Amino acid sequence: MATTLHYDLCKIILADNLINCSYLGHYYTESWQIEMAEDSFSYKKGWRKPVRFDAKDVKEFQFEMLNGGGRYGDVPAVMAYVVRKSDDDPVRLFYFAVHQEYVLLNQTKAHEFCSAILKHIGEKYKIPFYYKLSVDTKEKQNLAAFIPILIFIMLFLLFLISGL
Known about the structure:
This protein is of the alpha+beta class. 26% of the residues lie in helices and 38% in strands.
């Protein structure tokens, strides 16, 4: 039996072996799906090649709340990640936004729907999930390391310009 989560322009259908999500993105409606097999699950968005995860290799799910801004203003959004046992760097699983007035991020429909999705997958494969204020990925760490270098370059250029 399928469960439907719906709010404004976001609709998520949780079936036994399939999850479908459609939501209003920055410019148009976006959608993705997760297919769940006996020992693996795969994420597919549009025409892109599916990303397959072996359930035995998944340590946990993590998710964080984001600002899904765009032409519709600030809207609560969520990004979910898979943490593998073989690699501690989280891999992006899915993203979606729910258009609603801001409240505390952990009280939004985006948070509620993401928790329901990860609980649905987690119960099938016995994988825990966690909400984090910020999921630490290597991409974010590299960006954070680049910021001091950028500030130093800007200060150096200001020093050169002011000396002329």
